[in-house]
Q: What sequence folds into this?
């Protein structure tokens, strides 16, 4: 919780800084969002337990990762705040007038928050996660959107497979704060009745007549079929592509780095060196690991650098080489030690410490460039089953940040030690992380955030390897992530000194696992 | 960190430095080299230097024929032992300069870490744009690289007992596993089995347009694809077309002939996908009956192909009429009749199909993979996308549109490095380049293009060009020029001098050749894919880019093969206007009347690695 507090406070800071920037309104944030001229509101539609929240959170995570500031507004959270104690499905009956009034009130408050986020806080996309099953409600949203000059894109999830619905209820809803410590069957029963309440008034999107001019995607039976109507712009087409690629089959993704390389031993970055003897030992251990875990039909991906390929060769299974998985290009600093960089380019070194995510090596890449380069890998990882990705420190950080929903400030400091396999398994709304240290010693290549430096005090970084005039869009800092349960209403702007120890703490914990998932459910809402 | 004791002028032209190389060695140095070359140094010593020396520098300084020669015999190419003692360990802890008298002029020999840093700094134009490396830096770089390659010739003996696990392909610079001299070839491809794409729809619904466009796109991204148009088979088999009567469902002979044509097309599909190495075949026919689609699915199942249907549904009579006028009237079937007659006949022809048309059905065809495109992209229904290639196809089809528009491609104005005949770099515009930018502004004002978007790369020369236009523009990092790696900012003459083998390899297969530490045209195409996708989405766009980038983009629009692509002519100061027409693209080339240097280097006749320097430089364009 402490980290979210820090985040939201900081984002307010940077938002205020941005508002003073005259170009802020023209060019918001980074590469993927410049195609959207006006902010977009994504509106989910569907009965309860149709995977709306799953899609909202996942989409938000993806959009934030590619650099489009996005936030989820879950109406359930607002409702729970307004009505502290949930009694039973009666509340959701359409003829329960008092409840209807409360629910509408909640929606209006949430919409106000959407407005503030998109117009004042620098958000690009707001995901409005509610059932929105009636035309009346959707028309209300459309009027709201029109009034504020946003674009709207509907995502409707239709599912009539009872098994899928039951699985979803069991996995997600049973742990919902609406049902504290109750018996499972009763939860299921109550929830199914709750769904029935919505069914009475549910009006599906009608692509042939009433809703034919709307922009929407209808996801039918968990991605078996899609109906896409009137995609308006780049970001919508990106969203459609993403939603069409995600699936819900259970699978695990294994991330690891190559074995220790000679350069690692010498403390040099980049390059294309071979494995050290210990690195080769790790490759053997990795083979045993795969055998042990009985990972059949595991796909193995490597970069096109020698150390990952050498590691994969030891496994004795087919693998694919991806050039886009290559390590970050350190440009002029390739194959130097940190000491050498400090000696040769002290200024660059300091700039990098100020804003490691945006810092681009002269003649090389930044973490931001890396994220852009890795986007197809993420898309393909979403499509695939079990995959082992043998990659590099910076690349692994970027991939991990996607799965664990880490922001631009934390991403470059995530701990990805050598000779350690991370197993990522999607659960409920997040990702479970298991860490396997394969018991082969290796050097430590992690360089922590320098002490006493507040990354947000930094001025804008001006790229030097390429001439960038003032209109360049990628100089503005990427706003913080808001997804997955962060609380937008926490006290504003804590003092930097208050934050320091927490930041240090957050570096310690690499794998929070699923703990950020539950946070939203338990978080208190103090708006009303 | 500039060396205070460097006596030479930083403005020394690099060519002088190059010239100084041959004679610029002391006797001592020469002897030391010789000693090392002859293996008079101990093995331990060599291994040690090999280990410490390879890193630090972009390893490829030392690539030379000797390197590759050795590599094929299983040598350790990437270990380039370094002979100069000042380098030893010098990279780890920089030593003070060592002064060594050189034969030509009393210049300083720098420690490796120093010249390395400066050279790389120069390559990346860190502090002063347009700064050149000093003569002594150049000399050191060349000297050491030269020494290294000489060294390698004699080093085989030492390294033979190192078992090799990986070897780098000299052309594509890809690491390949290597066992007993046999290189395992692996094709990196996401599709496990070939895919058959089948169009479905009434005539004049844009099926052929979609097929051709999709084929062009897939070929461009590197998936071998071929289109099979059953109409062409029918015309082949039935030379003269009389009228729509042929297509009537009750014309038994017609039905038989058409069936036969479809069958022979499918036979060719099988030949292409299972023998000729094709990955995707586009079967372009109406396929309006469930019966016909069933036959195709059975055929695919027998041969182990995946099937993906693309159905185009359109009820808008205007769109249909427009399509007929644009495409069908030029069709060989209607060579000898007036457009009214042709239009009428074609409408009848459509009617023949309408009676038996069974669109893909949500329930009946729920197990089939397909995309249904409704009203030219207003709505899509996508069912059961099963793999990577299908998902790419769907994404592509959802992004294309048929709104009339033009794409303008041009390069930046002439740059300072263009004048000098150097490739890559990040230099500013020359005075003629700035003149071009002004002319470009006038050109755009004359053309008065509606909602024109302007895209540039993130390099100074394109941005300077765009700044002159006085309109907003977007910068794309993906539009940056090909990364020539170690050859950045070199003249072709210099590349030939320092990396003759690289230069020859490049001429042998320019599309696949990857510069050491740099990119190939093949890499560029991958990098440009999002640009193409976005160009497909947009309407009027002006792309201010670079020679290699423009070639890749142009190849997409003009459907050029990978052999033609790297030699497409994209001169400076010339705007190409691309307008999609019917199934292709109309190109207008507008020369804006500002002179510039020629930067196009044709493929020389002799691409042999042993060719002479004259042969290699035969086609280099004139420059300063």
A:
């Amino acid at each position: 919780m402490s980290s979210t507090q820090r985040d939201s406070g900081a984002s307010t800071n940077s938002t205020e800084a941005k508002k003073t920037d005259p170009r802020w309104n023209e060019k918001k944030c980074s590469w993927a969002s410049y195609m959207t001229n006006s902010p977009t509101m994504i509106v989910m539609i569907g009965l309860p337990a149709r995977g709306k929240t799953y899609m909202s959170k996942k989409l938000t995570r993806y959009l934030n990762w590619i650099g489009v500031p996005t936030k989820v507004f879950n109406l359930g959270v607002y409702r729970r705040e307004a009505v502290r104690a949930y009694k039973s499905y009666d509340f959701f009956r359409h003829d329960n007038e008092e409840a209807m009034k409360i629910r509408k009130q909640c929606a209006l408050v949430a919409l106000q928050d959407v407005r503030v986020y998109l117009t004042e806080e620098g958000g690009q996309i707001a995901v409005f996660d509610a059932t929105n099953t009636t035309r009346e409600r959707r028309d209300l949203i459309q009027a709201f959107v029109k009034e504020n000059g946003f674009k709207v894109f509907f995502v409707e999830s239709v599912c009539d497979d009872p098994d899928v619905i039951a699985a979803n209820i069991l996995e997600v809803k049973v742990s919902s704060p609406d049902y504290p410590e109750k018996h499972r069957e009763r939860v299921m029963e109550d929830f199914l009745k709750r769904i029935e309440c919505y069914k009475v008034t549910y009006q599906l999107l009608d692509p042939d007549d009433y809703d034919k001019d709307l922009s929407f995607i209808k996801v039918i039976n968990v991605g078996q079929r899609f109906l896409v109507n009137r995609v308006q712009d780049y970001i919508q087409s990106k969203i459609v592509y993403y939603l069409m690629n995600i699936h819900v089959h259970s699978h695990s993704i294994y991330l690891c780095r190559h074995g220790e390389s000679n350069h690692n031993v010498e403390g040099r970055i980049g390059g294309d060196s071979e494995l050290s003897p210990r690195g080769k030992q790790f490759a053997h251990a990795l083979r045993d690991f795969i055998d042990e875990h009985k990972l059949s039909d595991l796909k193995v991906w490597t970069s096109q650098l020698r150390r990952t390929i050498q590691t994969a060769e030891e496994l004795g299974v087919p693998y694919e080489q991806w050039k886009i998985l290559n390590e970050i290009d350190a440009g002029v600093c390739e194959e130097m030690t940190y000491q050498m960089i400090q000696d040769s380019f002290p200024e660059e070194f300091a700039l990098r410490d100020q804003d490691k995510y945006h810092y681009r090596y002269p003649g090389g890449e930044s973490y931001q460039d890396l994220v852009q380069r890795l986007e197809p890998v993420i898309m393909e990882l979403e499509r695939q089953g079990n995959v082992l990705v043998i990659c590099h420190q910076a690349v692994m950080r970027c991939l991990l940040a996607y799965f664990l929903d880490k922001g631009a400030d934390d991403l470059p400091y995530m701990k990805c030690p050598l000779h350690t396999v991370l197993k990522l398994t999607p659960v409920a709304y997040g990702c479970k992380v298991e860490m396997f240290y394969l018991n082969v010693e290796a050097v430590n290549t992690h360089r922590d955030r320098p002490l006493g430096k507040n990354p947000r005090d930094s001025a804008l970084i001006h790229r030097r390897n390429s001439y960038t005039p003032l209109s360049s869009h990628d100089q503005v800092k990427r706003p913080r992530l808001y997804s997955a349960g962060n609380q937008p209403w926490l006290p504003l702007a804590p003092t930097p000194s208050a934050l320091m120890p927490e930041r240090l703490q957050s570096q310690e914990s690499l794998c929070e696992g699923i703990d950020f998932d539950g946070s939203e459910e338990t978080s208190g809402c103090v708006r009303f | 960190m500039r060396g205070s004791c460097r006596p030479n002028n930083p403005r020394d032209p690099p060519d002088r430095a190059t010239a100084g190389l041959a004679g610029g060695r002391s006797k001592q140095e020469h002897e030391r080299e010789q000693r090392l070359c002859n293996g008079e140094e101990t093995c331990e010593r060599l291994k040690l230097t090999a280990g410490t020396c390879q890193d630090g520098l972009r390893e490829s300084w030392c690539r030379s024929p000797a390197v590759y020669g050795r590599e094929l015999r299983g040598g350790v190419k990437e270990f380039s032992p370094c002979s100069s003692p000042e380098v030893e360990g010098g990279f780890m802890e920089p030593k003070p300069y060592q002064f060594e008298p050189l034969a030509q002029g009393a210049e300083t020999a720098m420690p490796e870490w120093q010249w390395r840093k400066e050279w790389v700094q120069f390559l990346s134009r860190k502090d002063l744009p347009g700064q050149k490396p000093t003569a002594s830096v150049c000399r050191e770089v060349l000297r050491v690289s030269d020494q290294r390659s000489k060294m390698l010739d004699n080093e085989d003996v030492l390294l033979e007992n190192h078992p090799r696990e990986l070897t780098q392909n000299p052309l594509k610079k890809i690491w390949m596993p290597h066992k007993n001299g046999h290189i395992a070839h692996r094709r990196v491809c996401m599709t496990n089995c070939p895919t058959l794409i089948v169009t479905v729809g009434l005539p004049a619904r844009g099926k052929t347009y979609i097929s051709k466009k999709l084929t062009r796109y897939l070929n461009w991204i590197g998936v071998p694809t071929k289109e099979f148009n059953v109409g062409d088979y029918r015309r082949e088999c039935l030379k003269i077309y009389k009228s729509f009567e042929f297509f009537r469902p009750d014309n038994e002979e017609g039905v038989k002939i058409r069936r036969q044509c479809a069958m022979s097309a499918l036979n060719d599909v099988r030949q292409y996908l299972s023998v000729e190495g094709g990955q995707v075949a586009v079967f372009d026919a109406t396929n309006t009956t469930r019966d016909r689609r069933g036959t195709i699915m059975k055929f695919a199942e027998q041969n182990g192909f995946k099937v993906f249907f693309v159905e185009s549904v359109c009820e808008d009579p205007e769109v249909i009429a427009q399509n007929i006028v644009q495409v069908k009237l030029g069709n060989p079937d209607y060579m000898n009749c007036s457009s009214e007659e042709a239009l009428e006949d074609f409408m009848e022809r459509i009617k023949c199909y309408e009676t038996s048309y069974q669109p893909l059905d949500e329930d009946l065809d729920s197990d089939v993979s397909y995309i249904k495109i409704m009203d030219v992209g207003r709505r899509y229904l996508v069912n059961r996308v099963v793999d990577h290639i299908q998902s790419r196809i769907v994404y592509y089809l959802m992004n294309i549109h048929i709104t009339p528009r033009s794409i303008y491609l041009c390069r930046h104005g002439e740059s300072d490095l263009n004048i000098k005949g150097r490739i890559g770099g990040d230099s500013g515009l020359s005075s003629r380049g700035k003149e071009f930018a002004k002319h470009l502004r006038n050109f755009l004002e004359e053309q008065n293009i509606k909602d024109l978007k302007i895209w540039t790369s993130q390099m100074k020369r394109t941005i300077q060009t765009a700044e002159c236009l006085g309109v907003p523009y977007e910068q794309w990092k993906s539009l940056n020029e090909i990364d020539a790696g170690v050859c950045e900012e070199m003249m072709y003459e210099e590349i030939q001098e320092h990396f003759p083998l690289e230069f020859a390899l490049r001429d042998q297969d320019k599309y696949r050749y990857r510069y050491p530490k740099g990119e190939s045209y093949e890499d560029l195409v991958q990098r440009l894919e999002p640009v193409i996708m976005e160009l497909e989405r947009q309407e009027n766009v002006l792309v201010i880019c670079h020679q290699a980038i423009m070639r890749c983009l142009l190849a997409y629009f003009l459907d050029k093969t990978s052999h033609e692509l790297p030699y497409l002519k994209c001169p400076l100061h010339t705007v190409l206007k691309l307008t999609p027409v019917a199934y292709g693209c109309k190109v207008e080339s507008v020369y804006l009347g500002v002179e510039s240097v020629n930067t196009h280097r044709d493929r020389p006749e002799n691409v042999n690695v042993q060719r002479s320097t004259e042969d290699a430089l035969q086609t280099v364009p004139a420059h300063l």
